[in-house]
Design a protein that fits this description.
mainly alpha
């Protein structure tokens, strides 16, 4: 069973970032994911 918010987050991460690129280095993937997470956090924090 999966939490709806987690499922939504994972789906957006996959759709907006991971499906767009083929990563040749794990480090590059980690940096892009962290950047994406910070951007989403900033958007959510301004809505509250």
């Amino acid at each position: 069973w999966e939490n709806g918010h987690i499922g939504s987050f994972n789906g957006k991460l996959r759709d907006e970032l991971l499906n767009r690129e083929i990563f040749t280095m794990l480090t590059k993937a980690k940096v892009l994911i962290e950047s994406w997470q910070m951007e989403k956090y900033e958007i959510l924090s301004t809505k509250c």
